[in-house]
Amino acid sequence: MRNIEIKAWYPDDAKARQVCAEIGAACLGKVRQVDTYFRVQKGRLKLREQDPGTVELIAYVRPDQEEPKCSEFVLIAVDSPATVKEIFSALLDVEAVVEKTRTIYVLRNARIHIDDVGGIGRFLEIEVLCGLGDDTASAAIHRSNKRRRGISVHSSSKMKLPGEASPVLLFTSAFVDCYQLMVTRAASRNSSLTE
After folding, report:
1. pTM as predicted
2. CA torsion angle for 4, 115, 21, 144 (degrees, to 10)?
3. Are 143 and 69 in contact (CB under 8 A)?
């Protein structure tokens, strides 16, 4: 499967909900997600445990860039998450575990996620599915840019962490990359305090 994705820092979740309502997006509710990322050579592989909801193994490849990015992905339903986690942890090692609360909106074939990611901050994500009917990637990019402009998400060339002064900025990477950067920065700060 393919989709076009835009992800941005978006600290004002009340405004995001208001804009979703104004553009006619339907709210599907709120879920808690725990994503366990496994160390792989190419792309990303994660086990997503969702409450309420299902457990899925998600493999995907997508470029790290600010502009809308095409993500190629596969979803596999998992009946025994503890067993899958144990086997993949032993074979591949766990890269990180990222927990978030996600509010899900839909508007035609676009999904809008308002995410509160534990220890990282608040984000807005827009995903537009490709390949439905005569849909093409370029049409999906056009629609994702239209949604982005409607929600006032802007481009920036620098990744800024929560707590740094910044407008609503596009985010180039996966949440796991931000999580690892924050862990590295915290370790560096702690190390300089003990010297």
Report:
1. 0.75
2. -10
3. no
Nearest partner of 176 among 6, 36, 50, judged by Cα: 36
**Sequence-distant (≥ 6) Cβ neighbours of residue 31 within 8 angstroms:** 50, 51, 52, 53, 101, 102, 104
User: What's the CA gap between 3 and 93, in Å, rounded?
Assistant: 28
Listed by start position, the domains of the chain span: 2-194
- DSSP conformation class of 25: P
Is the pLDDT higher at 70 or at 115?
A: 115
Contact in structure between 101 and 116 (CB atoms under 8 Å): yes
Length of the chain: 195
CATH fold of 2-194: Hypothetical Protein Pfu-838710-001 (2.40.320)
